[in-house]
Amino acid sequence: MKLPFELLVALRFLREGRMQTLLIVGGVTIGVAVIVFLTALITGLQSSIIARTLGSQAHVVILPPEEINVPVLDRSQEAVAAAIQKRAQRLRSIDQWEAVLRQVERTPSVLAASPMVAGPAFATRGTASKSVALLGIEPERYENVVKIREYMIAGDFRVQGTDAVIGIELAKDLGATVGDKIRLATAENRDDVVTIAGIFDIGVKDLNRRWVFITIKLAQNLLDLAGGVSNIDLRVDRLFEAERIANLLQAQTGLKVESWMQTNPQLLAALRNQTITNGLIRGFVILIVALGIASVLVVSVVQKQREIGILRAMGTSPRRIMTIFLLQGGMVALAGSIAGSPLAALLVRLFSTIYRTGDGKPLFAPEVEPTLFFIAWGVAAAVGVIAAVIPARRAAHLDPVVAIRYG
Amino acid sequence: MLRLAGVRKSYNIGTPVEAEILHGIDLTIEPGEFAALVGPSGSGKSTLLNIVGLLERPTSGQVLIAGRDTGTLDEAALTELRGRTLGFVFQFHHLLPAFTALENVMMPTIIDRGVADEAGKARARELLELVGLAEHAYKKPTHLSGGQQQRVAIARALTMNPPLVLADEPTGNLDTHTADEIFALLRDVNREHRTAFVIVTHDPRLAQRCDRQVELVDGLIRR
Question: Quick check: ipTM above 0.90?
């Protein structure tokens, strides 16, 4: 194979300084392994946290607008209400909800929409009475928004007629299990007896204690909301677009639209902080690797002074001398990043067996996305070349006379 | 081939230690001439050779090589002219230790053409044969004796078939016998290829065997 002059010389120089080259390639290897591993780890942990937290939540919820009191001026314009009391928010239906549902389903990036009637009630069995949240749903639609089936631990997610699905804590509190009957009573003085068809455990005690899934019809009856729905739950294609979509829908419908990002500000802040910290660590590792490459090349330029002088005397331009050292930086970094990739994959595999969820499953997938490797190689090569700029300029500006005489 | 007119060279210009090394040199080297440049240490021989070798620019005066006024050329043109018309032989042979003897001899063609090609390789083999090192082609310089290294350096200086070769004490650190051999080799090349030589030497024995002796004393040519 015929290598271009610059590449040939760069390779030979690297081979000649074998120990230096090995050490710096080793440094880059570790640096790249740490960065790729950290990125895979943080991404894995974040998507796991998101999946766990949002698994039981809709990404976007559409609600009726809040009712507010509007102060009315009297005709003479002399008297104004001094204090306006806030209005209590009663359970109301979304106006024209079927039209709204059709509209949001047509919105791009909305994957699924599910109408719901939600309101408070008491669940009683024998002498035990617990306050619960009734969630009246159309099960087929709801399952497209929340993967509730994944959380079932007994019975089935079968919501039809007078069947209900409750959480594991409520089942414990009421001493009930699949097939038992419980009574649901609301503040509207309506009540009905339902049969427990299934029990879920979504990993949040409070929700396991309070959520009771029943049909939308039954909820409408119990909560006195005939024909209405209290909210529409949405699933969107890109999680972090939820806020944008919520704002868009709010502007389009005039309803109150909340994204998970609004309802889980702490989670969002935690994710953001994690991302920033990760970025900071990556930045410092890159800086250290770059400084390492630069310092090795600075030494190499001093060691190779005489060779540089000879090459210059034989008609090599300063620009080509510079290219030789830039190539060395790029190649060292590229070699290190390629060597670092299997190491990173190994680390990810190892840590995926160490970090486990409460139920013993790995917290994140033990694979690194191949694109991450390609990005790492590209970034490493670029960093290597940039790190080589200062040494390369020094090499290019060496006075050949001085370099030959004193090199 | 080479003409110097009124060449002066000063260092540390504008500082209290400003010093003029060359005080107006006029010198002509004809094609195929074999000239020795002699003179005591500090007389400015190396500076003059660097200026002729286009490694340094004179403070004033003209340097014409192959009819071209080098004062009007920019760095890139100077580098190219240097690569194509001049060959260098240094005192400490200065081979590239990372490359084999053959590659060292090929290097000027690799620099000129950008890649190592068959023609360059054939030329390098021919030159190694000429200097009697054909069987050492694949050895690294560190595995060659001082005399052998200097032969490789001479072969390398001839690779581009330059009309002028500049040699800075080419036999300086060799024993007398080897020095004679190297000198004889240079002379052969000069006679066979009509290559002009300017050889800086301290050895009066060798200087006497040149066509012409240029003696430099205190920055001026005495003869």
Answer: no
